[in-house]
Structure formats: structure tokens, C-alpha cells
């Protein structure tokens, strides 16, 4: 029988090793925890914002759908089972199945792949167009309405005359002169929505201009660009965010409408509006080729609107 | 008592209204034939070209001679004719007692005036080339007219029955708007964007025609909408449908879908008078890139006939070179040829197409096939008014053009194949083809003509800068109570005066 002492050195070696390992693990754990805390702290405003957005179920659903579409737009090209423009001669006019989830159209193209890849086109076009409109509209609105006078008058009378025309009519007119292409669609969205954005900005600027802190900044002799950029612009931002989201949803609709009318994105692009238009004559033969892109348009527009509603609620609450 | 009275009065009103509705309903259903068509744009017979335009004009005016469903010349205003032994003089006897809608008689001088207008070089009408062979036209008496030719023309009767050759009253001030014809129907109301209403010509010179009291062309710019109108009973006949709608109609009760094979085709062509189309290697690559059978299957679902790059189709029987076959598709060889021609990185071209018929689909299928063979294709889908407007279609480097059905192949050769022809959109020039076309168009020896046509087809398949993937079938649909509807290969030449309603 061995004495307890004789075992001690071995035990203590094991213990040392274990303790060393534990220390290492603890250190790693501390680093991870520290990192995690930092990330959480960094993301906290985002989480808080999302939590408040998701507080209202409708806005939450809308935001989730929009996020799903955004993810699809980014990774969709690698996700889809078929090339969106590939014509499979042997698989024309097929009903939805395990191979072709949304069926195939009259030229043997996989509708699921087209709808998924089409989300990239429509989000990119509508998104870039809206961004362009918001950027130009904000700049023009801020500067002209801060300066005021005849410059403001002239600018906004021109915008009024543009606004008097229905957006689609204006778009058709512009595309008639520019010729149909992706760039033209971008330009059309920008021109159609710049006046609307500028008007929203102007209403806030006119309100802000009379505030005492602006008068104070002026008497302090701050330069105009500083006042506009640092003191007026922040007060415009919440209204601008809501407006941008709303414009985005209208832009999606506009892109789809132009595609449907055949003056926007040209075939064989998997543009949703174009797909609806192409499938229209085949409604009785391949209804799936019509309904899935149509459903995608509605879903995205509705989701965008719900999100914009939620955004408005949250931003107004924060103000 | 009071209640009783009121009840009686109400009942009376109801009965009156019911009678009114029933009578109006019967009235409309019984005697007006309603046809859904495209919007006619040009109603001067000299310029009218589309099915809708010719269809409308063919109910207002008459031709001197007509062409029947079997492609034979049939009498219309001319009841009989003689041809001189040398083939240079044609004498026509006109029907007796024919009057224009304004009551004035139609005489030989009106026929002379009409053809003189169509062939007047100063007016630069599209028919000037067609009738360049006429030396003189004379009215021998009120009902006899004679044509003298400078050289023999085996197709002269068909030329006289050209789509444009509606007989107008001499000195008509505005042929695009006067509508003073001798035809089976009289224009009663015309709103250019909307509809044209016509009533039967009570004194029409052909017995038993027209078969209905009134005719209405209702203009639709959207073919799906016109089919819905047929389904809903708002129209009785729909003309010119895309194939998808035609196939759909087969399954709808109460509607009869009809189709007729035609000589019409879609032409895909490069421009041969400038780069890149002026390089024979590019043309060969273009022809090797396309799979005509796949196109026919995908775009037309196999309805119609396969083409082989010549406008002379299988319906022309002995003229058609059935034994010819295109070189099988070879995208790899096409790529090599393009590389040799200096387009190793891909030849970039914009494919222009009108938005009518199944042509946008054709463009999409072509794009895929051409891109597999080293072309880089952008598609531009344009409304017909843009594509054909201001002759843009004659300018573009790569385009798709729809050609309607004609009774004889000589028409296509004369207007779009021979060097310098008015509508030679490919700017194709081949001396052998020109010589053969000239022989075919003048010789009275049928065997020589057959030989010339067959040789032309071989040359076109070999070297012409265009691809004709298929000949299409023309389609229409009508309600069950329509009787006597005989759709023609050129849809506009369908005889609507022969139709009655049951």
C-alpha cells in the first residue's frame, strides 16, 4: 500500500498543468468577454433602435422581410440553383416542383432563380436612385432654403412644376429622351424624387431657421456652412430618414412599373416588372411565372412601407 | 289599395325596362359584327401596310382583282379580263352599276387615276417600283380599262392586286380621310384612337354581301385586353394574337381559335455595308451561332414552319428548295471566325427589336445563342412606331423585322433582297441573286423560274447576312355565332363582308 505522500508530487504536477490550463482558459474567456462587452456596447444603440423598431409587430415584420430581401440580394447569385437567364429547352412551362421551386417560364428559365437574383437588381436600382435623390434633394433643400430669397423661390417653383406631373408620366417622358437603360432608370428616379425630398428638407429648415440657437450661432459669427452642416442638418435627419425609406418603397414600385411598361431595364434581365409583363400573355399557361414576381413586388413594397412607418414612430419618439 | 296601386305601377315599370333591355340586347347581338384589331395609323391606301390598316380599308374599298385563299387571282371589280398573246397588254371588264358611297358611278377613269397615282414617280409612293413596268393605262370606255407593259410580267395580276391598290374615286382630295370607296361597308363614324363604325352598303354590287348590317372595328393596343373582350362577349373576332394567347384560347369554351400557315417570317439581319457586318467571317459566325430549330421550338412552340434564311417558304410549293439544310450550329467555330475577324474579345452589338408579336422572346433566345458563340449582345425592345418610325430599322446594325405574308416570293426579292431595293435593310448586294431574281420576275417559263428561285435560296443560305429562323402561322379567334370567317395568310386581306352572325 502506498503512502499518500508518495503520490503527492505526481498529483501536484497534474494540478499544476490543470491550473495552468484553467488560467489560460480564463484569460481567453476574459478576452472574449471583454470583446463581447465592447461589441455589445458598440452595438447597443443599434440593438436599442431595432428593439424599439420591433416593439411594434407590423414594423418588425416589415423590417425582417426587407432584411431577408437584402440578404438575398447580396448572396442570391451564389444561392440560386440555376442561372437566371439560362434557357432550358427541355424544361419549358413546368409547374413548381422540387427542382424548379417556382416553376419555369415559357422560355425554360427557372422562375425562383430569376425572382431571387431580380431582388438584387431592383434593390440596387431603387436604392441607388433613392440615395442619389436624397443626397441631391437634401443639398439643394438645405442650401437654398437656408439662404432664402429669390434663389429659394426659383428652385422651388421649378420643383413645383416637376411635382405637378405624375411620377410615371415624368419617368416615361424622360426615358423617351434618354433611351431605356439602367443608368436612365437611375436618373429618372433621382429627378422624380429630388423635389419631394427637397420639400421635406425645406419644411424642417424653415422651422429650424427661426430657433434661437441658430440666431446665437449667427451672432457668434459662425460661417454659414458650419451652421447649415452642424446645426441645421442634424435637425433634418430624422424626417429625412423616414422620407428616404418611403421614397425607397416608391422607387421599387417605379422600377417595377417601368420594367412592366418595357421602357426600363431591358430583357433578359430578371427584373420583376419585366417578368410580370413577359408572363402576362402566358397567364393561363404558366401562372406561376406571373404570380411569383408580382407577389415579390407587393411583398417588398408593403414591407418597406411598414418599415418606414415604424421608423417614423421610433424617430419621432426619440426626438 | 294604395299599396296595390304602387305595386302595379312598379311592376309596369319593371316590365317596360325589361322589354327595352331585351330588344336592345337582341338588336345589338343580331346585326353588328365587332372586330378587335390593332390601331390603324395610316389609312391612305398608298401607305397602309399593317394588317389592321388593310383590314379596315378592304371593307371600305374594292380591289380591281382579288386573291383567294388558294392564292389564285379572283374577280372583284373586274369581272373578266384578257391578256394579249405577247403578254404585254391586259384588258379588264368592270362590273356594271358599281357606285361609290357618295352615289357617283365607278368608271374605268377611276381605275386609271388610282394606278396612275400609285405609279407616279413624283409622288414617291412605295408602289412606284412595283408599277415601273407599266407603259400606259387607258380607259377604253366606262367599263373597260387596259394596261400596256414594257416587258412581260408573269405576276402582273398579283401586282394589280397589291395591298395598296384599292380603287379610289378619281381626284380624291384626301385619300387618308375621305373614305369614299365602293366597298361593302360605308364609314359612319371614325375616332382614330378608339373605333371605326361602318354600316352595310345597301347597293353593293356583289350579291349576298355584306352578311351583316353593321361592322365595328374596335382598336386595342393591348392584345391580352382584346382576348379578354372576346371572352367577355364585347367583341366577336380578334385578329393577330401572340402565340401564348392563341394557345390559351384553345381551352376557353364558346371561343374558336383558328390559325393558318403563312409566308410571313421574322428576319434577323446584320448590315452588310459597314463593319462589322461587311466581313464575310462575321456573317458566317452569325449564321453558325444560331440554332434555328431551338428558336422555332422556344419562340413559336413549333407552330408554323422552320426557315432556312430565305424568304421563299414551304407554302410556295415547287419554288421552295426543300432539300437545302443549314450548316449545323457550331459556336466554337463561330468564335474562331470572330477571332480571325479581329473580335477575339467578343463582338459587341445591340439587337433592336419591335415589341410586337413574339419578337422580344426571339431577341432573348437569340441573345443567349449568340453570346455562346462569342457575340456580346444588348437588347433594345422598341414600340413599332419607334422601330419602324423615321426608318430607324433600315439604319441599325443588328435588327429583327417582321415580314407579312405575300402571295408570291417575287415581292420579297424585289423589295428586300436585290441590290439597292427600297427595304433592303441588310444592305445585301449579290450580282448572281439580282440576275436570278430578274429572270424569275420576267420569264414566262415556269421551269426556269423554279430553277432561279431554288438557286437564290442556296445562295442566300450560304452568304446572306440574315437569318430567317421560321415562318409563322397567323392566328385569330372568334365567337361561336360567327359564320363564314376565312382567315387569310395576310390577315388584313380576310373578307369580312362574307361573314354573317347566327
Topology overview:
The complex is a heterodimer of chains A (319) and B (502).
Chain A: H1 4-55, H2 57-79, H3 111-147, H4 149-164, H5 167-178, H6 182-209, H7 212-219, H8 224-261, H9 272-280, H10 287-318
Helix pairs in contact in A: 1-2, 1-10, 2-3, 2-10, 3-4, 3-6, 3-8, 3-10, 4-6, 5-6, 6-8, 7-8, 8-9, 8-10, 9-10
Chain B: H1 2-31, E1 32-37, H2 51-60, E2 65-67, E3 73-75, E4 78-83, E5 89-94, H3 108-119, E6 134-141, E7 144-149, H4 156-160, E8 185-191, E9 195-200, E10 214-219, H5 223-231, E11 237-239, H6 243-249, E12 255-270, H7 280-289, H8 292-300, E13 305-306, H9 331-340, E14 347-354, H10 359-372, E15 375-382, H11 384-387, E16 398-403, H12 410-417, H13 431-442, H14 446-463, E17 466-467, E18 470-479, E19 482-483, E20 500-501
Parallel strand pairs in B: 1-10, 1-11, 14-15, 14-16
Antiparallel strand pairs in B: 2-3, 4-5, 5-7, 6-7, 8-9, 9-10, 11-18, 12-16, 12-17, 12-18, 13-18, 19-20
Features:
A: 319 residues; mainly alpha; B: 502 residues; alpha+beta; twelve-stranded mixed β-sheet; four-stranded antiparallel β-sheet; globular
Architecture overview:
The complex is a heterodimer of chains A (319) and B (502). The longest helix of chain A is centred in the first third of the chain and has 52 residues, at 4-55. In chain A, 80% of the residues lie in helices and 0% in strands. Chain A has ten helices and no strands. Chain A has helices at residues 4-55, 57-79, 111-147, 149-164, 167-178, 182-209, 212-219, 224-261, 272-280, 287-318. Chain B is α+β, with helices and mostly antiparallel strands and 502 residues long. Chain B is built from 14 helices and 20 strands. In chain B, strands 1, 8, 9, 10, 11, 12, 13, 14, 15, 16, 17 and 18 form a twelve-stranded mixed beta sheet that branches. A four-stranded antiparallel beta sheet of chain B has the order 4-5-7-6, covered by helices on one side. In chain B, strand 14 (347-354), helix 10 and strand 15 (375-382) form a beta-alpha-beta unit. Residues 20-29 of chain B have low confidence and may be disordered. Chain A binds chain B through residues 85-87, 89, 92, 106-108, 179-180, 262, 266-268, 278, 280-285, and chain B through 223-224, 242, 244-245, 247-248, 251, 294, 297-298, 355, 360-361, 363-365, 367-368, 378-381.
Amino acid at each position: 500500500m502506498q503512502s499518500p505522500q508518495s503520490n503527492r508530487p505526481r498529483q501536484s504536477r497534474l494540478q499544476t498543468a490543470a491550473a495552468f490550463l484553467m488560467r489560460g482558459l480564463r484569460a481567453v474567456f476574459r478576452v472574449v468577454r471583454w470583446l463581447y462587452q465592447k461589441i455589445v456596447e458598440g452595438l447597443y444603440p443599434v440593438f436599442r433602435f431595432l428593439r424599439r423598431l420591433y416593439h411594434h409587430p407590423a414594423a418588425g415584420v416589415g423590417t425582417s422581410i426587407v432584411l431577408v430581401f437584402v440578404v438575398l440580394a447580396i448572396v442570391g447569385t451564389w444561392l440560386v440553383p440555376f442561372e437566371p437567364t439560362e434557357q432550358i429547352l427541355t424544361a419549358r412551362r413546368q409547374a413548381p416542383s422540387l427542382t424548379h421551386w417556382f416553376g419555369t417560364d415559357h422560355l425554360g428559365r427557372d422562375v425562383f432563380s430569376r425572382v431571387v437574383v431580380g431582388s438584387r437588381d431592383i434593390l440596387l436600382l431603387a436604392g441607388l436612385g433613392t440615395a442619389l435623390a436624397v443626397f441631391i434633394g437634401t443639398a439643394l433643400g438645405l442650401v437654398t432654403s437656408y439662404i432664402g430669397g429669390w434663389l429659394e423661390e426659383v428652385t422651388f417653383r421649378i420643383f413645383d412644376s416637376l411635382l405637378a406631373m405624375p411620377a410615371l408620366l415624368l419617368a416615361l417622358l424622360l426615358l423617351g429622351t434618354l433611351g431605356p437603360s439602367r443608368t436612365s432608370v437611375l436618373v429618372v428616379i433621382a429627378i422624380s424624387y429630388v423635389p419631394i425630398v427637397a420639400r421635406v428638407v425645406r419644411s424642417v429648415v424653415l422651422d429650424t431657421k427661426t430657433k434661437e440657437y441658430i440666431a446665437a450661432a449667427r451672432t457668434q459669427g459662425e460661417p454659414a456652412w458650419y451652421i447649415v452642416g452642424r446645426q441645421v442638418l442634424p435637425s433634418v435627419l430624422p424626417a429625412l430618414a423616414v422620407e428616404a425609406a418611403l421614397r425607397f418603397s416608391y422607387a421599387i414600385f417605379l422600377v417595377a412599373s417601368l420594367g412592366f411598361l418595357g421602357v426600363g431595364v431591358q430583357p433578359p434581365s430578371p427584373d420583376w416588372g419585366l417578368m410580370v409583363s413577359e408572363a402576362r400573355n402566358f397567364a393561363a399557361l404558366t401562372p406561376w411565372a406571373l404570380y411569383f414576381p408580382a407577389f415579390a413586388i407587393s411583398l417588398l413594397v408593403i414591407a418597406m412601407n411598414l418599415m418606414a412607418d415604424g421608423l417614423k414612430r421610433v424617430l419621432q419618439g426619440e426626438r | 289599395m294604395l299599396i296595390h296601386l304602387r305595386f302595379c305601377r312598379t311592376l309596369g315599370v319593371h316590365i317596360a325596362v325589361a322589354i327595352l333591355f331585351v330588344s336592345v340586347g337582341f338588336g345589338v347581338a343580331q346585326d353588328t359584327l365587332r372586330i378587335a384589331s390593332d390601331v390603324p395609323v395610316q389609312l391612305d391606301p398608298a401607305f397602309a401596310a399593317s394588317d389592321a390598316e388593310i383590314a379596315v380599308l378592304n371593307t371600305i374599298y374594292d380591289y380591281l382583282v382579288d386573291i383567294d385563299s388558294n392564292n389564285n387571282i379572283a374577280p372583284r371589280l373586274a369581272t373578266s379580263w384578257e391578256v394579249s398573246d405577247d403578254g404585254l397588254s391586259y384588258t379588264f371588264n368592270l362590273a356594271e352599276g358599281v357606285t361609290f358611297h357618295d352615289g357617283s358611278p365607278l368608271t374605268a377613269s377611276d381605275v386609271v387615276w388610282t394606278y396612275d397615282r400609285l405609279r407616279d414617280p413624283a409622288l414617291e409612293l412605295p408602289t412606284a417600283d412595283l408599277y415601273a413596268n407599266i407603259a400606259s393605262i387607258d380607259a377604253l370606255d366606262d367599263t373597260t380599262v387596259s394596261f400596256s407593259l414594257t416587258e412581260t410580267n408573269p405576276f402582273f395580276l398579283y401586282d394589280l392586286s397589291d395591298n395598296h391598290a384599292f380603287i379610289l374615286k378619281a381626284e380624291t382630295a384626301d385619300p387618308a380621310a375621305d373614305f369614299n370607296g365602293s366597298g361593302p361597308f360605308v364609314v359612319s363614324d371614325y375616332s382614330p384612337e378608339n373605333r371605326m363604325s361602318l354600316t352595310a352598303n345597301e347597293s353593293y354590287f356583289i350579291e349576298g354581301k355584306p352578311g351583316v348590317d353593321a361592322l365595328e372595328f374596335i382598336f386595342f393596343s393591348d392584345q391580352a385586353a382584346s382576348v379578354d373582350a372576346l371572352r367577355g362577349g364585347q367583341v366577336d373576332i380578334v385578329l393577330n394574337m401572340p402565340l401564348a394567347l392563341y394557345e390559351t384560347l384553345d381551352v376557353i369554351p364558346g371561343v374558336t381559335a383558328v390559325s393558318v400557315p403563312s409566308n410571313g417570317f421574322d428576319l434577323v439581319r446584320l448590315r452588310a455595308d459597314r463593319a462589322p457586318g461587311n466581313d464575310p467571317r462575321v456573317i458566317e459566325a452569325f449564321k453558325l451561332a444560331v440554332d434555328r430549330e431551338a428558336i422555332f421550338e422556344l419562340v413559336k412552340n413549333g407552330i408554323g414552319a422552320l426557315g432556312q434564311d430565305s424568304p421563299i417558304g414551304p407554302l410556295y410549293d415547287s419554288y421552295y428548295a426543300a432539300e437545302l439544310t443549314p450548316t449545323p450550329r457550331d459556336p466554337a467555330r463561330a468564335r474562331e471566325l470572330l477571332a480571325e475577324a479581329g473580335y477575339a474579345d467578343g463582338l459587341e452589338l445591340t439587337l433592336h427589336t419591335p415589341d410586337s408579336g413574339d419578337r422580344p422572346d426571339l431577341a432573348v433566345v437569340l441573345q443567349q445563342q449568340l453570346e455562346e458563340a462569342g457575340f456580346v449582345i444588348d437588347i433594345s425592345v422598341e414600340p413599332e412606331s419607334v422601330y419602324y418610325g423615321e426608318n430607324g430599322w433600315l439604319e441599325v446594325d443588328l435588327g429583327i423585322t417582321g415580314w407579312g405574308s405575300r402571295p408570291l416570293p417575287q415581292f420579297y426579292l424585289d423589295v428586300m433582297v436585290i441590290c439597292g431595293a427600297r427595304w433592303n435593310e441588310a444592305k445585301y448586294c449579290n450580282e448572281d441573286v439580282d440576275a436570278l431574281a430578274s429572270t424569275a420576275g420576267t420569264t414566262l417559263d415556269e421551269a426556269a423560274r423554279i430553277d432561279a428561285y431554288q438557286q437564290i435560296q442556296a445562295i442566300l443560305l450560304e452568304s446572306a447576312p440574315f437569318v430567317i429562323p421560321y415562318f409563322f402561322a397567323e392566328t385569330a379567334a372568334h365567337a361561336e355565332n360567327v359564320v363564314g370567317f376565312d382567315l387569310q395568310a395576310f390577315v388584313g386581306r380576310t373578307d369580312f363582308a362574307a361573314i354573317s352572325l347566327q
